[in-house]
Amino acid sequence: MSLFTRGRLIAPALFAVTGLLVIVADGTTAGAANSQKEKKDKDKKDKDAKDGKEGGGKATKDLRKAFDAITDLSQTTVAGKEATRVFDHAKRFYREAVKAYADDPRRSAELAAAANDAARGLEHFNRALAKPVTGLPEPPLDFDRPFGGPKGKGPPAWDAEPGAERGPWSEALEALTISRGQLSGVDTGTPVTGPSRDVLDAAKTLYTQARTAYEAGEYRKAAELARGAEAWSHVPEHLYRARWEIGTAPPLAPVPKTKGPGVPPPPPAIKD
Fold first, then answer.
1. Which residues of 249-270 are buried (b: 16+ CB within 10 A; e: fewer)?
2. Model pTM?
3. How much of the chain exceeds pLDDT 90, in percent?
4. Which of 62, 152, 194, 206 is least crowded, fewest Cβ atoms below 10 Å from its Cβ?
């Protein structure tokens, strides 16, 4: 076979092979792109499912805690205009969290946390105002342990010189320092309007009262007031993450409790 003839045969063959390689390469690229897209879609779906599950679990926990705290607080009189306003907001946060629970568990979790923190602050506030029980001494203090931390682990949370003496004032000072740190960062990091402003203003009032009690030597009262202020300082952040928008409508009335279909009967009565 002549060189010319051989060349005429080789050229079409090379063209066919090159075309095949292009097709294979294009198919591989398209397959890889589709595979990556499917993986991204799956990862997003898994993340959404995880976020929804975690949000729902957190919402359930905080809703239960908020419900119990609000129920207990409803049995007493909340003292002061600011505290009463915070209590009203807590009940509205809770109702909105219940409404959002099925469709938006993450928003529900944030509103439930806001309701829980508002109620928790009120519990500290009430304990601060509670009168001492006659004949009931306060528990002994552990001067070796920083507030909220295990014994002998970690530096003290309060702003004091290393090796400073600890005494009956220490827990109150630590609580005041933590509370001030929380309050100092709220205005700069989170938009604060409406209910958030109400709760934050109440928190600052509580912090001021805590300082006054501390200077008067009422350390137990100062610690409770400071912890209440710290609890309320978290509410604006939760509301911001929940994209809370509150209107002028009155609070929703609670839904009457009714027996649903198929409710199983209670266990049999105990016979004498």
1. eeeeeeeeeeeeeeeeeeeeee
2. 0.66
3. 44
4. 152
